[in-house]
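the three lines:
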Amino acid sequence: MSIKKNYLRPIDFKHGHIDMTHGAGGRASAQLIDELFARAFDNAYLRQGHDGALLPLPSEGRLVMAVDGHVISPLFFPGGDIGCLSVHGTVNDVAMSGAKPLYLAASFIIEEGFPLADLKRIVDSMAAAALEAGVPIVTGDTKVVEKGKGDGVFISTTGVGIAPPGLCIDGRSARVGDAILVSGTLGEHGVAVMSLRESLAFDTAIESDTAALHTLVQSMLQALPNPSDLHVLRDPTRGGLATTLNEITRQSQVGMMVDEAAIPVLPQVDAACELLGLDPLYVANEGKLIAICAPEVADTLLSAMRAHPLGQGAQRIGTVIEDSHCFVQMNTKFGGRRVVDWLSGEQLPRIC
Amino acid sequence: MCLALPARVVELLPKLRAIVDLGGVRKEVSIDLVDDAQTDDYVIVHVGYAIGKIDPEEAQRTLALFAELSAAQNTLQPSQNMREML
Amino acid sequence: MKYIDEFRDGDSARRIAAKIAAEVRPDTSYSFMEFCGGHTHAISRYGITGMLPPNVRMIHGPGCPVCVLPIGRIDLAISLALDRGVMICTYGDTMRVPASDSLSLIKAKARGADIRMVYSAHDALTLAEQHPDREVVFLAIGFETTTPPTALVLRDAKARDVRNFSVLCCHVLTPSAITHILESAEVRQLGTVPIDGFIGPAHVSIVIGSQPYEHFAEEYRKPVVITGFEPLDVMQGILMLVRQVNAGRAVVENEFSRAVTPEGNLAAQKLVSQVFELRESFEWRGLGEVPYSALKIRPEFAAWDAERKFELHYTSVPDHKQCECGAILRGVKRPADCKLFGTVCTPESPMGSCMVSNEGACAAHYSYGRFRDVARVDIAQAAITSIAK
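prediction for all of em together
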């Protein structure tokens, strides 16, 4: 896309900053959209240039829509940034219904004074993530707030997708006897972010696991002779595995029994959690999923997951049981048993 | 009382500070309270300060205690068990 | 993780559990108080209660510095922040302790108070140096393990003459608390709380050594086993107590010999005595006024003592009428005995401090153990054995 003749000069992405004119809707806004967002996200729908995008929809299946706001701080962390996180997060939310994500919309609320170099870095990261996932960003919006009224940048992404007809994957569908699977090691995203605060250094850096999981979900569904044997899919983001399992037990009115020894956690994540006073079960993940399925297909699903790059560490961690109290119980590595409860409030590191 | 962990001293730093390693994770702490700590010593770290050292021989002795053969012990009468552990 | 993983080994756990089961006398009941919150947490987190024979009962003691911090002390910190614009630095656990007017430090933060969570006392001093235009107060809580770091920070603040930094000292002492419990009516006269022995604190003992406990063993004829925090340590400590009780002995034994010596960390003790002195009395939440149980800052460091600097006056504030934290901290009641437990009082909305800290008896029970209050869940053996290939 070439610079139009009636613009004064190209945006200085190295040294420039966002100011109120970039959100005012006038020439400066248009220039920012053209030179930054449209250039990075470029696709046929975006080029339509309407306020909203005109999109084709497949003739069958059900529409799935998801929205996520991203307010993470710091904006840049080992393994990712708020940009790719906002793409992966919403793609994953759509994928957790078994749907194929089709389109994304992105809204930016930027604080006055935010460095354009950082904004470009974030936008480029989003563009790369969307391209890799094969899910274009087809429409968007930009607003600017006064200095002090934002935290650098907030990003909200909405995603739509199509779920095949007849598929019923949701939190209410777990059944007694079902197998509980996770797609890989837990706790990396939360530890990567928290370790910045504590200036922890690692032998091999712990990086956020942020990733788009929709192709993993598709290969899982394709591996099943009867896709309706996959009952629940959910990604354990804020609050970690523990919170997500508790949500499901309450929605499905069941209990769970998990085996601590089976829950995969990298040794360095374990060590970092010890040092930070955190429990890995409650730490956020951004590139993992929990699958609950009929027991007879557990092995098939595990094989399919392990054959996919994002599911290589997949493990079966437990079983759904009958329990009117909806507890998630865990057999500890040590030999005793405990309840794995909801996260209460924010997980504050302990001194004691 | 508190959350304190054994970590290995990997590097001594000026002003009574050190870098310690726990399972591959490194952190800078104060060794002001254990100023004779050396590289490869294990110190116990609490809220960013080393408060004591691990004695490797005592640690081994304690582990050996846990691993006492159980077969004989299972039939041992309580009154026979007078082992001093101080 | 060396010196951690070996002390969490499941096979050794089963071995020790079998020994305990074999050695307890069927006609005797054993009640041991674990003083430290860290032990309470370990017992709950690893499910140790379920591995002990039914006639061995663990009583949770008041060794959780967050749990025993009275409402009035938190009020002082909140008032400094909200009314006088002071930056309050504190450890994470303290932030949610419920105080007066339905406030806590974290709720005060939502109202605009500048409350910062720090991992280390050192961070608080650094913040003071980074913000020379602000008054910074470090809310110092903790038993003898946590006191030396505060002493170091005060020493450094004085040496570097950091005038905008001060400490609100709420450090408390372990032996005084143990004495107070042993002297209490329930233990001494009424026998409502039978205590046959103590699982002694781990990290406090690294600092103060094993010698201070000999007094309890002799004077009160109660065995004390200083025990490490890993679950194998705890089980071994319980076994050693069972053996002492069976043999009619009451001495101090040191299971945590890899880190605890008889005299402790002398350098740390010396530093603490240079910076702090004993308070004649200090209110503990749940225990009331306990003599010579807490520390205050010495006059030489007056300029860094927040109580002197801001002319703070402590006002005692009673707990919620139905809150049983006091009884629970003394081991008289169990969490499930409290009418508020699990209904009004939960980790999301704690009414008392036992529910706030992860190692408070109520929080530990709620998070890890309350499934035992309900009928045992019937689990098919096949479900467990089929898990995890």
